[in-house]
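Summary of Year 1 activities. Much of the first year was spent building the evaluation harness for sequence design. The harness presents a backbone, in tokenized form, and records the residue chosen at every position. We chose the following record to illustrate the format because it has been used consistently in internal testing since the harness was completed.
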């Protein structure tokens, strides 16, 4: 059993509210493995659709450590919702004894290895999103959608 970013299965939970992040390899995997779709941003209380969000001044570990914020393109601080969503995702993982998470690349919550730099310019930096960081801290293996 694995957690998976729900948008990868075509669930319309991404910031834009569409299914453009659907990953055909993930859909095929769901036919043979038990996958639990989650959207940390929705679990944290954010609506769909919503303004794009990026971590400003750091990466997921810095958000969890209170050193930086997650801000949407309109300038609204959504850090609390991101942390709450990460915590709820971890609760689900613990309840189902999940040891792996298939993550949406470059997301400020689910991103693994690379995230956007916080300038809303499309520039990438090395780092993980908020939920990915919390799951890693709790021993859950992260698999990028790009490595399915």
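For this record, the design step produced the sequence shown next.
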């Amino acid at each position: 059993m694995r957690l998976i970013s729900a948008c990868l299965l075509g669930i319309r939970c991404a910031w834009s509210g569409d299914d453009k992040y659907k990953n055909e390899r993930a859909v095929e995997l769901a036919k043979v493995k038990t996958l639990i779709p989650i959207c940390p941003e929705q679990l944290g209380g954010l609506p769909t659709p919503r303004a794009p969000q990026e971590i400003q001044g750091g990466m997921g570990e810095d958000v969890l450590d209170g050193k930086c914020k997650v801000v949407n393109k309109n300038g609204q601080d959504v850090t609390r919702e991101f942390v709450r969503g990460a915590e709820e995702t971890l609760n689900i993982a613990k309840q189902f004894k999940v040891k792996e998470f298939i993550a949406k690349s470059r997301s400020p919550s689910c991103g693994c290895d690379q995230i956007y730099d916080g300038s809303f310019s499309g520039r990438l930096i090395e780092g993980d999103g908020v939920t990915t960081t919390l799951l890693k801290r709790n021993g859950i293996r992260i698999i990028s959608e790009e490595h399915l």
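Residues 2-147 form one domain. Quantitative recovery figures across the full test set are reported in Table 2.
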